């Protein structure tokens, strides 16, 4: 291929290459020819060669050797060469290249050129790749051009000034007078550039923002002129007069009206006029309306205007365009906390969006639906959410179940409705619920004494029907173990009576024990339930003893330990079995004072799902009724728990017979082990901001290991989602962060999140920890960091 081929011929040759290797060969030959011609002093085709090199650069091949040629062509007096030179500079140069400094003087000369198109080339290049040094040198020239009589130059200079302000914020003061005067221009291009420049100045300097609040009446007049102006072919887009300028003005008004009563009052009438007169049948009109809505919701607007903005978003929800529906729900999510009643009017439309085929729309509709749940609509909303749960995508099931649980716990109209709702969720999506669901439901059932018979019958039927949902099976086994006698009586007024025999119940528990779908934890629940039934039935005790003895040689160490201990109860301590396997008393949560409908989603502290959940926590009686040592021996008999004993009020303790040989046997179980008194780990508040509080407590495990517990709560009025903690420690310290208890924090402290961090410090260095806190509130992402220089409780 000849070095002098035109650009079109080179493009045709490159496109006709059959392989990448052939394409590289064509480009290499052409680049070699371009280099040779660049070295010639008298070269009349410089612009032609540089244009070809720019095409090569667009294809991703190296073209750095043309940088100096760009500098030379910019200095050329010929417009054709200057134009290609400036284009090459914008593509091949940036502020990191030393060659960019060489064109500063050429740009300065061209900014004073008599030809407006040469001035335009210099302005575009400076706005595209001007460095901070270039901006400082040329800012006075730009300010001079802002006062030019030529509208074409003024609009280019305004946008160039925006780049200068972004690069060097201190230069913003230089452009304030000129920017203010540009608002009196009639040319739409100049007005657009002026509004963009003022927006940039106001966002970067609060003092400048106060000064430009005086321009609100001028902006309102410009906006009204756009609305009432007749058809103008130069600016009309689908029947809307210059929508780009309208959107820019609305965005600037939003910045000026934020936290300002007077500025907001000055623009209220205009915003109402735009909201009512803009055509919403076209995408262009929807863009203007959406920007109007954002402005209304962000300033101190009137209540009626806010309702009008919410209604516009409600109309967006009916739009066939999924993108419009998505942004409408995103906006509603941000204001549902402040304008809850206005958003509630569109609840039906929002719920209908749960049926949308688009996954993103479904997710937004789910988040918004959960935020709309209240005490007045809890039944209807949960009904719709349960219907959605039965057919929702797998990636949304965990979020849906968690939201339903929190809403039911906060607004449940009755305990029976609460239990039925949770059981429905467990039946539908039991594999997607969080770990704390099982102990929470057990706590709820335990405290609803009037519903024990109803619950055990319902759970038994669910267990017989399906044993694949592990969470449901665990709760069912727990209830059968605790209230099996009520199940066998078959006298339940709340539900249809079912005649269940002892063999039927044991068959169901054996099915769980032998099923390959049952996890180790679920088998532990079933084995404990079987053992508890030995005190609640009369004819099949030998069968229970046989079932328990089989698992005394189980390969699962947990099940084996339970079975061995239960066998010991049958043989050596049979006289104690009835007292040990008593029903669990009423249980309390960590945070006191919660009632139904306001209960939190915290884990029940008395229930440990990885141990014998039904009888691990036998309450400690007051010291005057029972020695502490006997209680610890009893704990060790049933699970060998090494955790500190949780103190429970004396009114809820179990009566334990301490007279005769029973007390002596209890004392003799472990050879007189003397427990040390439990001391709570010291805690300290390390972070408190915007309603989010993070506390830290430490517990020394050994000389080199330490357990750190992070607890987060949300005292604000809006829910928090996506709450994550990240921790960093010195390099010589090994860090292992366990999974958090939850990733959402309901409003008003309704629940707390805990996360365990294990630290190994073999070199005994001074422990410090840096914690990053990330979460999403009302659709906005927040991130903060805190450093803990000393951990509490360490000597």
TrEMBL record:
Q: Record the organism.
A: Oryzias melastigma
Q: Which ranges carry the GAE domain? A: 679-792
GO terms for biological process?
axis elongation; central nervous system development; intracellular protein transport; vasculature development; vesicle-mediated transport
User: Which GO terms of the cellular component aspect does the record hold?
Assistant: AP-1 adaptor complex
Keyword list (alphabetical) reads: Cytoplasmic vesicle, Golgi apparatus, Membrane, Protein transport, Transport
| Region described as Disordered | 587-628
Tell me where in or outside the cell this protein is found. Cytoplasmic vesicle membrane; Endomembrane system; Golgi apparatus
Record protein name field: AP-1 complex subunit gamma
Cite the Gene3D superfamilies for this sequence.
2.60.40.1230, Leucine-rich Repeat Variant (1.25.10.10)
Name any one Pfam family assigned in the record. Answer: Alpha_adaptinC2
Protein's membrane topology: Peripheral membrane protein
- Record SUPFAM superfamilies: ARM repeat, Clathrin adaptor appendage domain
Family indicated by similarity: Belongs to the adaptor complexes large subunit family.
Mainly resides where?
membrane
Concerning InterPro entries, the annotation shows: Adaptor_Complx_Large_Subunit, AP1_complex_gsu, ARM-like, ARM-type_fold, Clathrin/coatomer_adapt-like_N, Clathrin_a/b/g-adaptin_app_Ig, Clathrin_app_Ig-like_sf, GAE_dom
Q: Where is the composition biased (Polar residues)?
A: 589-612
């Amino acid at each position: 291929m000849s070095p002098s081929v035109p650009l079109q011929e080179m493009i045709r040759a490159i496109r006709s290459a059959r392989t990448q290797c052939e394409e590289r060969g064509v480009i290499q030959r052409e680049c070699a020819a371009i280099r040779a011609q660049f070295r010639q002093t008298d070269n009349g085709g410089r612009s032609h060669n540089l244009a070809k090199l720019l095409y090569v650069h667009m294809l991703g091949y190296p073209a750095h050797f043309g940088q100096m040629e760009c500098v030379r062509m910019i200095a050329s007096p010929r417009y054709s060469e200057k134009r290609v030179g400036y284009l090459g500079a914008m593509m091949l140069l940036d502020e990191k290249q030393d060659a960019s400094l060489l064109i500063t003087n050429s740009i300065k000369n061209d900014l004073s050129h008599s030809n407006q198109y040469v001035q335009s080339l210099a302005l575009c290049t400076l706005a595209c790749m001007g460095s901070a040094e270039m901006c400082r040198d040329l800012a006075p020239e730009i300010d001079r051009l802002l006062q030019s009589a030529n509208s074409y130059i003024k609009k280019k200079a305004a946008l160039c000034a925006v780049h200068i302000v972004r690069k060097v914020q201190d230069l913003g003061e230089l452009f304030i007078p000129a920017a203010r005067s540009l608002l009196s221009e009639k040319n739409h291009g100049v007005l657009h550039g002026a509004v963009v420049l003022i927006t940039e100045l106001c966002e970067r300097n609060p003092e400048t923002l106060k000064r430009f609040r005086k321009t609100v009446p001028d902006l309102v007049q410009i906006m009204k002129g756009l609305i009432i102006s007749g058809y103008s072919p130069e600016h009309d887009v689908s029947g809307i007069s210059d929508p780009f300028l309208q959107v820019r003005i609305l965005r600037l008004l939003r910045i000026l009206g934020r936290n300002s009563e007077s500025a907001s009052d000055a623009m209220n009438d205009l915003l109402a006029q735009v909201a009512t007169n803009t055509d919403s049948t076209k995408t262009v009109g929807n863009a203007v309306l959406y920007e109007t809505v954002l402005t209304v919701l962000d300033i101190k607007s009137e209540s009626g205007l806010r309702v009008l903005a919410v209604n516009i978003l409600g109309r967006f929800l009916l739009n066939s365009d999924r993108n419009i529906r998505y942004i409408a729900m995103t906006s509603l999510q941000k204001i549902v906390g402040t304008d809850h009643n206005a958003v509630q009017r569109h609840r039906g439309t929002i719920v209908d969006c749960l049926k949308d085929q688009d996954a993103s729309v479904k997710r937004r509709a789910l988040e918004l639906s959960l935020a709309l749940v209240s005490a007045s609509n809890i039944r209807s909303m949960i009904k719709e959410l349960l219907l959605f749960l039965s057919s929702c995508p797998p990636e949304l099931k965990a979020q849906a179940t968690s939201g339903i649980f929190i809403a039911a716990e906060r607004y449940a109209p009755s305990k029976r409705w609460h239990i039925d709702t949770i059981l429905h969720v467990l039946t539908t999506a039991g594999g997607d619920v969080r770990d704390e669901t099982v102990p929470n439901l057990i706590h709820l059932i335990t405290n609803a004494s009037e519903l024990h018979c109803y619950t055990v019958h319902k759970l038994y039927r669910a267990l017989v029907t399906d044993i694949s949902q592990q969470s449901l099976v665990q709760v069912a086994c727990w209830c059968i173990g605790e209230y099996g006698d009520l199940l066998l009586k078959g006298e339940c007024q709340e539900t249809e009576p079912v005649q269940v025999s002892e063999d039927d119940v044991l068959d169901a528990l054996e099915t769980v024990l032998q099923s390959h779908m049952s996890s180790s934890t679920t088998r532990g629940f079933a084995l404990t339930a079987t053992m508890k039934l030995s005190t609640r039935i009369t004819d099949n005790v030998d069968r229970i003893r046989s079932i328990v003895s089989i698992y005394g040689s189980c390969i699962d160490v947990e099940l084996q330990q339970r079975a061995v201990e239960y066998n010991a109860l049958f043989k050596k301590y049979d006289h104690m079995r009835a007292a040990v396997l008593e029903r669990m008393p009423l249980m309390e949560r960590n945070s006191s004072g919660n009632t139904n409908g306001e209960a939190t989603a915290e884990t029940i502290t008395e229930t440990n799902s990885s141990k014998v959940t039904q009888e691990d926590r036998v309450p400690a009686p007051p010291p005057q009724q029972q020695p502490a040592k006997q209680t610890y021996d009893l704990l060790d008999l049933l699970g060998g728990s090494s955790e500190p004993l949780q103190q429970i009020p004396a009114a809820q303790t179990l009566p334990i017979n301490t007279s005769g040989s029973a007390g002596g046997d209890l004392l003799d179980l472990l050879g007189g082990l003397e427990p040390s008194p439990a001391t709570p780990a010291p805690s300290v508040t390390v972070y408190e901001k915007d309603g989010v509080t993070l506390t830290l407590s430490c517990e020394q495990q050994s000389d080199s290991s330490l357990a750190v517990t992070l607890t987060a709560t949300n005292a604000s009025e809006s829910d928090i989602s996506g709450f994550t903690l990240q921790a960093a420690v010195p390099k010589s310290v090994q860090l292992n962060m366990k999974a958090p208890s939850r990733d959402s924090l309901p409003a008003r402290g309704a629940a707390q999140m805990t996360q365990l961090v294990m630290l190994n410090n073999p070199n005994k260095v001074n422990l410090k920890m840096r914690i990053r806190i990330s979460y999403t509130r009302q659709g906005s992402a927040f991130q903060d960091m805190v450093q803990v220089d000393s951990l509490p409780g360490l000597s």
